[in-house]
Amino acid sequence: MDLQNKQVAIIGLGLLGASLGMALKNAPVRRLGWARRAETRQWCIEHDAVDFTDDDVKAILARADLTILCLPIPAITEFIICHAQDFKPGSIVTDIGSDKGCITKVGENILHPLGVHFIGSHPMAGTEKNGCEAAFAELYDNAEIFVTESSSSDPEALDTVESFWHLLKIASVRRISPEIHDNLVAHTSHISHLLALALTLAVLDCDNAEEEALRYSGCATGFRDTSRIASSSPVMWREIIENNQSAVVDAARKCGYIYQKIVDSIAQGDFDRFESLFARGKELRDRWIDYKTANRK
Hints:
By secondary structure, this protein is an alpha/beta fold. 53% of the residues lie in helices and 12% in strands. It contains twelve helices and nine strands. It has helices at 15-23, 38-46, 57-63, 73-82, 101-111, 155-165, 178-204, 209-218, 221-227, 234-242, 245-267, 271-294, and strands spanning 7-11, 30-34, 52-53, 66-69, 92-95, 117-118, 121-123, 144-148, 172-176. The chain has a six-stranded parallel β-sheet with strand order 3-2-1-4-5-6, sandwiched between helices. α6 links the parallel β8 (144-148) and β9 (172-176). The protein is globular and about 65 Å long.
């Protein structure tokens, strides 16, 4: 499908959905948008995040050539089930959820028999904030996008979804199976939130007010940067982890094993080993930074 002058619907106008609309401002598509709250829809019109909205989501879906579901994971699958008959026949539906196995299964099983193509997407972008008021057009700049391909995927729909993401200032689009995706993000994204949570609880959860005040004073930019994503939505992260439980447990256990090696080296006074582990971590992170820098646009 050539997206030139097509109608693209963004369902869910929170941080990710509203930012997506803003990023598409100069793209050759018409931006349709819908959110449950009238105040959110009005805000997005006033801040040029969408070109058109409507109280009735069915009216939006009936027009859309491509629909992007920017909702929490349980809401994505619920929306597909509830509105399966409302999508425009022959249209394409994608999403931005960070768990792909559960969403892809529902999307393909429900929509494909109705002549609507489902292709999962996951842009590696976001912040710890939420709501349309936190949206900004550059959120997706230099992001890497995963598009999930299964044996049921329509080749033309896959190409169209990839073409859609290329309308933004992204670094790359990669095709990947839903299963490989979910194992990957357990290691690259989900585990980071668990570590930020553990760090925050270990440092700031004090019963003694005097000790708490001292720790508040003692935490500086290193703690701020490392713990930032612990300020993310607890409800959202419960849903993400719950839907990727097995892969997250595997990633967490691997991390725990490595962390214990670091602790053991300190406890045993083996600071040569500690320095070696630290040097290996620095080498790997510096290599990753070089990769990200090389792929910036």
